[in-house]
Design brief:
324 residues, binds S-adenosylmethionine, 3-stranded antiparallel β-sheet, 10 strands
Length: 324
């Protein structure tokens, strides 16, 4: 306890330990309402916040013609809201919301608060009032995952973040052009002016389209079954080269949340041509990221398995080489 309290607000007159300080602070962000800012320099993988939902409802089943049955969502949200303490209700009602021009003035405030701020969490949709203050960027420096066992959303730094820098996540899929992203963001009621939307828009669009296509194209080319024909081997060698370009491209575009996915492709593409050294190095880089994201995820476990396998194959090759 004393170690924790030394680092926090230990007050000898009032011996109440408030726990370690938060690594972020909430304050106004230019043109975006409130935002969340780093209170310290953060390294990749550092946890920014862990939060348990105050309201959690089952994700609505997709019904033909009414893909998002909002009336049912509102009903469930209201039921949960009524069961909250007055403080928790106040925290929910203080959140920002956006209504579209076509929505009537009688719009249910709680419903639109939920729509503007909620996140998918496994099979549910949840309201997390602390996380709800994080603004969007199309080149975010943070990401998050849902821990079902702990009923907790975990937000972590996906890039290095300097003290004072605003923390950002993405509200939408990022492998879209500027125009496509803006269409998806319209329901939040803002025009995105993040660095990806403001600078080198065409270059960024081209990169994102190429990355999206590469992710799809590689999907069917990641089997580790032995290659039998010369054509298949030639194709695999070309793929290994192309996978290096993919890894470079996601990094050039600064899409940290896709690095691990690209590194996995690069690793497997090299393993397919038995080029074990790069296969092991890329797999290990992917594993490191997946582990930082969520050490217990199936992605992390798969990357652990691949990394061990590729390192063992690399060692084997070196052993065979030295014995001949
Ligand atoms: C989930 S809330 C984020 C926190 C919010 N800024 C607040 O004050 O509570 C989403 C809303 O924040 C604003 N917002 C988020 N990202 C933004 C951005 N990149 N540019 C401008 N406004 C943004 C929009 O009003 C959006 O509807």
């Amino acid at each position: 306890i004393s170690a924790t309290c030394k680092a926090s607000s230990w007050q000898p007159q009032h011996p109440v330990c408030t726990g370690p300080p938060e690594v972020y602070e909430v304050r106004p962000s230019n043109g975006k309402g409130l935002g969340v800012f780093a209170a310290y320099d953060l390294e990749i993988g550092d946890i920014v916040m862990r939060e348990t939902p105050v309201i959690k409802i089952p994700r609505p089943t997709v019904v033909k013609k009414d893909p998002y049955p909002m009336s049912e969502v509102y009903r469930l949200v209201l039921k949960e809201f009524e069961a909250l303490s007055p403080d928790a209700q106040e925290a929910v009602l203080s959140l920002t919301y956006h209504t579209s021009a076509t929505e009537s003035e009688t719009i249910n405030e709680l419903g639109v608060i939920f729509r503007t701020n909620a996140y998918n969490t496994g099979n549910n949709i949840s309201l997390l009032p602390k996380m709800a203050r994080i603004n969007h960027s199309c080149r975010p420096n943070s990401d998050y995952y849902w821990n079902e066992k702990l009923n907790t959303q975990v937000v972590y730094a996906s890039r290095k973040i300097k003290k004072g820098e605003e923390l950002s996540v993405s509200y939408i899929s990022l492998l879209l052009t500027h125009q496509e992203r803006q269409k998806d963001l319209d329901r939040y009621g803002f025009t995105c002016s993040c660095e990806a939307c403001n600078q080198e828009r065409e270059v960024s669009d081209d990169r994102r389209i190429t990355i999206r296509k590469a992710f799809t194209d590689f999907e069917s080319q990641l089997s580790l079954e032995p290659l039998t024909s010369e054509t298949a081997k030639r194709q695999a060698r070309n793929n290994a080269k192309a996978s290096l370009q993919l890894a470079e491209l996601v990094q050039e575009e600064g899409l940290a949340i896709y690095y691990a996915r690209a590194f996995r492709i690069t690793a497997i593409s090299h393993a397919r041509v038995e080029d074990w050294e790069p296969a092991a190095i890329w797999a290990s880089r992917g594993y490191e990221l997946r582990y930082m994201e969520d050490p217990e995820s199936t992605n992390a476990q798969e990357m652990h398995h691949l990394t061990s396998f590729f390192i063992a194959s690399w060692e084997n090759t070196l052993r065979n080489r030295s014995s001949t």
